[in-house]
Automatic annotation (TrEMBL):
Residues 1-80 are annotated as: Disordered. It comes from the Bacteria. Residues 38-51 have a biased composition (Basic and acidic residues). This is DUF5709 domain-containing protein. Residues 1-37 have a biased composition (Acidic residues).
Length: 80
């Protein structure tokens, strides 16, 4: 029977050898705790751009206004 390289089922068990990796019950995901995830989410929210002034104001060029509204993260290590 010829193999069809466009058929995804042809290569399903190539690397797993039929064994499924499952985490035992009761173990938590070690990637990030809820407190760490909340802290990281708070940092991301602080870095959002400020809203632009209403489009009816003709005080500045829209491109200049967008550039001035950008929020840049201050990182002491990158400043040096």
């Amino acid at each position: 029977m010829p193999l069809d390289p466009t058929d995804p089922e042809t290569f399903d068990d190539t690397y797993t050898d039929g064994a499924q990796e499952e985490e035992p019950e009761g173990t938590e995901n070690p990637e990030a705790t809820e407190a760490d995830a909340a802290e990281q989410h708070t940092d991301v929210l602080r870095q959002r751009d400020e809203p632009l002034a209403p489009s009816g104001s003709h005080e500045a060029d829209p491109a200049d206004a967008a550039e001035q509204a950008r929020v840049v993260e201050l990182n002491e290590d990158e400043y040096r």
